[in-house]
Amino acid sequence: MATVTPHICEELWKKSGRSGFISATAWPSVESGLVSREAEFTESYIIRVLEDIGKIIKVMKSGTPRKICLYVAQDWKWRAYRIAIEHSRAGFVEISKLLKIVEKELGLRIQRADLARYLQQTVQELRKMPEQELETVASTTVDELQILKEAANFIRREFGASEVQVFKADDQTRYDPQNRAIMSVPLRPAIYIER
């Protein structure tokens, strides 16, 4: 405020018992011990989800949505994602080797071509991710389901929706009339919107 209302701020500075001029005082510094990388990551994650929902609503030209359903990735996708993180941080990733490692470690029973496509997409996304965010994801357990359930009312208010539901993609009881859940990947939940 001192740059906008200098005279008032100088008076308040003196009345609060401070010496010198507020205009000559150093700016406050960041106390790095108080910064929570997890909280910052969670906030940026929610912002990305809001942006994705907004893009879909814009394309649909549907106005205010009645229901928004979010589907977070299955556990196997997260386990494969974490293996891909390890390999991408080590340097060049050969998809065929990564594919064999993931198949062996996870014992998956899905089409090999689908898994290869998923791993290729994952490695490309990881290469675009800022190093600090990649470090946060690698060093913590990201519970997308919990994050989005806690943010559901906020998301509902942001878009004026009647309800927001959050499901695990492999939840057999999920509401998913267009089978969007299969498109979920870690940090990019699948989205279904009803008017």
List keywords for this structure.
7 helices; 195 residues; 53% helix; 3-stranded mixed β-sheet; mainly alpha; single chain
Q: Can you put this structure into words, describing what you see?
A:
It is a single chain. The two termini are 45 Å apart. The chain is flat and about 70 Å long. A 3-stranded mixed β-sheet has the order 2-1-3, with helices on one face. Helix 3 crosses helix 4 (95-106), helix 3 (75-89) crosses helix 5 (112-128) and helix 4 crosses helix 5. It has helices spanning 6-15, 37-60, 75-89, 95-106, 112-128, 131-139, 144-159, and strands at residues 67-72, 163-168, 190-194. With 195 residues, it is mostly helical. It has one domain.
What order do the strands of the largest sheet run in, or round the barrel if closed?
2-1-3
Radius of gyration using CA atoms only? 23 Å
Assembly type of the chains comes to: single chain
Question: How far do the termini sit from each other?
Answer: 45 Å
Topology record:
Layout: H1 6-15, H2 37-60, E1 67-72, H3 75-89, H4 95-106, H5 112-128, H6 131-139, H7 144-159, E2 163-168, E3 190-194
Parallel strand pairs: 1-2
Antiparallel strand pairs: 1-3
Helix pairs in contact: 2-7, 3-4, 3-5, 4-5
Short note summarizing the structure:
With 195 residues, the protein is mainly α.
